[in-house]
């Protein structure tokens, strides 16, 4: 599936266009809900791309907005594409449904900026490290750990995709390196994996030294996803223990880009970071 083929991205595009058409037609949410004989909440979820939308609902909305011809056919085609299943659906029983939107957006993104203060970024974790983290998470069913590890490894394939490699820039607090997750063998494999991943042309890894002291954004992890089409706005993903928040307003994305840039300046350079990891391998293992 190409980056533009993600059903979540298609759903998001469709929702944004339906919202634009509603505004152009000067229709309020309650008018559209009455026309479709549904709740206003459903219309809002469709416009924000949070739920799949039925073709008949799209047809009814376009009829209300006075849209026909090629434009109508194009949007109905988009609605059909948005109903396809993504690879992550194969792991639906193991991963909470709230993650589906993130997985779909990640699959469509061309750029990821990821800051982690306490752990190694998910796309850079080895199976052993990921497994140890999941076993320690009270929200993860122990019987589903292996499935979730498989899902994480599947997600990581974007980094080595020969056609559409994801550009990953990860900033990790040094505290994550000093936390022994899963034991010595697991950490040695994780450090060696970081060195290998840092050699990829599309992967940049920087550590923030503990001696740096306080720095902008310290302690609050986030992911910013960027897309190839300028019409697809950046998304900021904030994850907590049992909830996830998406920020899609351009001002929010710009603020987090600025924050990441300040973190980048506070962090060690990529070459120094790689040398630090090699030194840790030599000293600890």
UniProtKB/TrEMBL annotation:
Pfam families: DUF5753, HTH_31
Organism: Solihabitans fulvus
RNA-binding found in the keyword field: no
Coiled coil residues, start to end: 11-42
GO terms assigned for molecular function: DNA binding
Keywords attached to this entry: Coiled coil
The protein's name: Helix-turn-helix domain-containing protein
Keyword field contains GTP-binding: no
Highest taxon of source: Bacteria
InterPro entries, alphabetized: Cro/C1-type_HTH, DUF5753, Lambda_DNA-bd_dom_sf
UniProt xrefs under Gene3D superfamilies: lambda repressor-like DNA-binding domains (1.10.260.40)
Residue ranges occupied by any HTH cro/C1-type domain in the UniProt entry: 18-72
């Amino acid at each position: 599936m190409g980056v533009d083929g993600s059903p979540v991205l298609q759903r998001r595009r469709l929702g944004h266009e339906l919202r634009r058409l509603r505004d152009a037609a000067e229709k309020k949410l309650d008018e559209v809900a009455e026309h479709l004989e549904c709740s206003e909440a459903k219309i809002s979820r469709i416009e924000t791309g949070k739920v799949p939308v039925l073709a008949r609902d799209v047809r009814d909305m376009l009829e209300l907005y006075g849209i026909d011809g090629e434009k109508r056919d194009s949007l109905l085609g988009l609605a059909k594409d948005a109903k396809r299943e993504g690879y992550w659906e194969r792991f639906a029983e193991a991963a909470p449904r709230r993650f589906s939107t993130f997985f779909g957006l990640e699959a469509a993104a061309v750029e990821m900026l990821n800051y982690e203060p306490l752990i190694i970024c998910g796309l850079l974790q080895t199976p052993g490290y990921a497994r140890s983290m999941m076993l320690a998470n009270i929200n993860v069913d122990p019987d589903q750990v292996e499935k979730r590890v498989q899902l994480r490894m599947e997600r990581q394939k974007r980094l080595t995709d020969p056609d559409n490699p994801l550009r990953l820039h990860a900033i990790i607090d040094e505290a994550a390196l000093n936390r022994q997750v899963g034991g010595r063998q697991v950490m040695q494999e994780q450090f060696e994996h970081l060195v290998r991943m840092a050699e990829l042309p599309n992967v940049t890894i920087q550590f923030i030294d503990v001696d740096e002291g306080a720095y902008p954004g310290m302690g609050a992890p986030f992911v910013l996803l960027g897309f190839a089409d300028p019409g697809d706005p950046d998304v900021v993903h904030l994850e907590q223990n049992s909830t996830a928040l998406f920020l899609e307003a351009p001002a929010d994305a710009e603020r987090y880009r600025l924050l990441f840039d300040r973190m980048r300046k506070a962090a060690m350079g990529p070459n120094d970071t790689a040398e630090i990891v090699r030194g840790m391998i030599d000293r600890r293992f």
